[in-house]
Amino acid sequence: MSQLQSQPHSQPQSQPQNQPRLPTDTWVKAPWDQYVQQIEQSGYEKAKGYYLDGWMRIEMLPVSFDHGRDHGTLALAIGLYGVLKSIPFTVLDNSSFRKAGKREFQPDLAYYVGERARLIPNGTSIVNLEVYAPPDLVVEIGKTTIMDDRTVKRTLYEEAGVSEYWAVDVEQMEIYAFEMIERGSRRIDESQVLPGLQITVIEQALRQSREQDQSQVGNWLMGQFQR
Asked: Which helix (H) or strand (E) holds 104?
């Protein structure tokens, strides 16, 4: 994994004296136990944690307005499509998925679709991937992290068994959508887990959100989806 590099970044000041400080917002090599100790410390409540085969990444960067707006627009678009097309789904926002000792991810959006829409029971904290299947669709929204979203996280989701992955470029308003296939993934123009949903329609909604409020964007989307 040539993209994984260790570079110093700022750390919360509440870290115990006897715990070595690890950089955030980049991939660093660390055993599973050290990753869990760090992500569970006070000061990391809003952090997002990722782990893949001995490498960890904890994201502490604040979420920008652009990221937050696109997050809302994507959730609106996918939700409207599911409702109008009568596709059962459950969306999870910034939830944790874990296979202890092996991998963890906390994507911006994750969807269980169809028969698996009610798979995860109420009261679940971290979704245990030893017990439950991974989500059908995962969405990562990136501005400063987009290259990582398109590369290392893509590998993470391939190995986790996610069916479809979208990496959303906030600045270019472009969606890199991938269908996961055996030992890899390939770019797609139409969602496979939400049949008939064209990726270009969602990209157009992102562009319109720069000039219109989300109610206006939602009205436009409903017109597109009802054709």
From this structure: strand 103-105
- Confidence (pTM): 0.89
Task: Report the DSSP beta bridge partners of residue 185.
Answer: 180
| Nearest one of 126, 117, 75 to 98, comparing CA atoms | 126
Closest CA to 78 of 148, 147, 135, 15: 135
Cα gap 74→79, rounded to integer Å: 8
pLDDT digits (tens, 9 = 90+) for 185-208: 999 999 999 999 999 999 999 999
State the Cα–Cα distance between residues 201 and 218, nearest whole angstrom: 12
Give the Cα separation of 196 and 61 in Å (integer).
35
C-alpha 82/C-alpha 92 separation (Å) is: 14
Domains of the chain in sequence order: 1-62 (no CATH), 65-225 (3.90.1570.10)
Q: Two tokens at 150?
A: 């398109």
Neighbours of 19 (CB within 10 A): 11
Nearest to 129 by CA among 154, 170, 165, 101: 101
Q: Cβ of 77: how many Cβ atoms within 10 Å?
A: 23
Phi-psi category of residue 86: left, alpha or beta, with phi > 0 → left and psi -120 to 50 → alpha: left
Token pair listed for 37: 């100790």
